[in-house]
Amino acid sequence: MGDSRRRVTLPEDSSTSSSAEKGKLENKKAKDSEALYYIQTAVADHIFPRISVATSAKEAWSILQKEYQGSAKVRIIKLQTLRRDFENMKMKDSETIDEYYTKLRELVNQLKSYGEDIPEKRVVEKLLISVTEKYDPIVTTIEETKDITTLTVTELVGSLEAYEKRRSRREENSLENAFQSKLNMRSQNSNRKEEKFKSTMEDKKKQNMRPCRIVKEQTILRRIVTFEENHNVEIARGSDTWKKIVGSKEIIKLTA
């Protein structure tokens, strides 16, 4: 943006001024030009055209103040809204201390830009009462062991973040142990199922073998009975009784 933006109106008749007055005037103009330059280079490109016609730092600042802060009534309304937001702000369960404090700090800066005085003690108290329940142990410890009136925001945030990291590590270890325990349980269940399957297969194998053994035993028994019957017939044929009835056709038919 450069020095071309510096627009300072010179007195129309500077010849009547004394050398001392001219020196003071030149010094004042130089400071005003420098201030205007800083304002012009600090604003974004899309905002610069709004203050490009300003010839002094005061004029440029007034343009910005009216546009972004509005009238006194608008500023009061905006300030009331910011105060309400500050009082109602609470940390979410999904937020970290860093994320929540960043939001709170931005809100505090907005309040200060509208002229609200926010002492550090008030920010400390707000943090202590607005963090989630999982920070209750460290909050209680801080309230019991430290002087809240002299505790800085930096110290408080550091303590909360340290507690947050320790708690996170413990949760990670607990999850890891739970996962390992679950894997062990699955392995044990798998072994039980495998043993049960083997036992079932062995039972089925035994059941399949039993009918074969019964059939084999029945066959052997039948052969023994048949052998004994034939043996008895041979004995009968050799006896006197057989010889007496050998002529009977019916007996012959029966024994044929």
UniProtKB/TrEMBL annotation:
Residue span of region Disordered: 1-29, 167-208
Compositionally biased residues, Polar residues: 178-190
Basic and acidic residues composition bias: residue spans: 1-10, 191-206
Segments traversing the membrane: none
Protein name per its UniProtKB record: UBN2 domain-containing protein
Protein source organism: Sesamum radiatum
Lineage: Eukaryota, Viridiplantae, Streptophyta, Embryophyta, Tracheophyta
